């Protein structure tokens, strides 16, 4: 009798997880807020990176978010485009995706980045051959910490939440994973501390993609190998 293996998946955030982009995002938002006459400290911006843009604006602009939000988003888009030449993958990022794909585990970019930003990120990552599916802002009404993007990512590859692991760099990734019922592995590459990532539910924390790759066979990702191999 032939046994059919279940579909398993690793859901990767991209900003700050695979691509060194978080601090470029901070710079772009900082320039945007300065331009609309509402300066915001970089440390506060960094804490809000990876939030849904509406939540980010509400968090950082408060009661002026409705008044200034659209202008700030447009200025952020322009500033980020200007900085995009500095986007680069973290060491080990491509090889990590290759290692997961080699185990016949679906590799999904689970992001709510707008399509224009996502195109820049995918170009910088240069790992299309390893990707099974990709999400974007068009796939869900709300971004992390809501679970919509992760649920969409699972649906695209036909994997159950219990057969997937989320790899991300922010507490918002961890909170979204918990709400979706997906195990979470944290990376410190986006600038958050290990304690914060563990509080957000991380089963394990690594410095960056290269560190996870070096330990991948003893990481939570390895639980997926046994299901597919």
From TrEMBL:
<protein>
    <submittedName>
        <fullName>Haloacid dehalogenase superfamily, subfamily IA, variant 3 with third motif having DD or ED/haloacid dehalogenase superfamily, subfamily IA, variant 1 with third motif having Dx(3-4)D or Dx(3-4)E</fullName>
    </submittedName>
</protein>
<dbReference type="InterPro" id="IPR006439">
    <property type="entry name" value="HAD-SF_hydro_IA"/>
</dbReference>
<dbReference type="InterPro" id="IPR023198">
    <property type="entry name" value="PGP-like_dom2"/>
</dbReference>
<dbReference type="GO" id="GO:0006281">
    <property type="term" value="P:DNA repair"/>
</dbReference>
<dbReference type="GO" id="GO:0008967">
    <property type="term" value="F:phosphoglycolate phosphatase activity"/>
</dbReference>
<dbReference type="InterPro" id="IPR036412">
    <property type="entry name" value="HAD-like_sf"/>
</dbReference>
<dbReference type="GO" id="GO:0005829">
    <property type="term" value="C:cytosol"/>
</dbReference>
<dbReference type="InterPro" id="IPR041492">
    <property type="entry name" value="HAD_2"/>
</dbReference>
<dbReference type="Pfam" id="PF13419">
    <property type="entry name" value="HAD_2"/>
</dbReference>
<dbReference type="InterPro" id="IPR050155">
    <property type="entry name" value="HAD-like_hydrolase_sf"/>
</dbReference>
<dbReference type="InterPro" id="IPR023214">
    <property type="entry name" value="HAD_sf"/>
</dbReference>
């Amino acid at each position: 009798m032939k046994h059919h293996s279940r579909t398993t998946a690793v859901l990767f955030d991209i900003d700050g997880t695979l691509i060194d982009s978080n601090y470029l995002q901070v710079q772009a938002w900082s320039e945007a807020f300065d331009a609309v006459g509402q300066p915001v400290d970089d440390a506060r911006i960094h804490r809000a990176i990876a939030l849904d843009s509406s939540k980010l604006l509400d968090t950082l602009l408060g009661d002026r978010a409705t008044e200034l939000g659209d202008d700030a988003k447009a200025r952020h888009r322009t500033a980020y485009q200007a900085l995009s030449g500095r986007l680069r993958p973290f060491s080990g990022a491509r090889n990590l995706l290759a290692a997961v794909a080699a185990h016949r585990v679906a590799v999904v970019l689970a992001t709510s980045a707008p399509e224009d930003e996502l195109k820049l990120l995918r170009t910088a990552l240069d790992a299309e051959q390893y990707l099974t599916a990709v999400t974007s802002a068009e796939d869900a009404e709300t971004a992390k910490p809501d679970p919509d993007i992760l649920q969409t990512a699972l649906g695209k590859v036909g994997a159950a939440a219990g057969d997937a692991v989320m790899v991300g760099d922010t507490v918002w990734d961890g909170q979204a994973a918990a709400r979706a019922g997906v195990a979470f592995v944290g990376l410190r590459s986006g600038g958050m501390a290990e304690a914060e990532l563990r509080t957000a539910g991380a089963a394990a924390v690594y410095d960056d993609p290269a560190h996870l790759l070096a330990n991948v066979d003893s990481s939570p990702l390895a639980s997926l190998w046994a299901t597919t191999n």
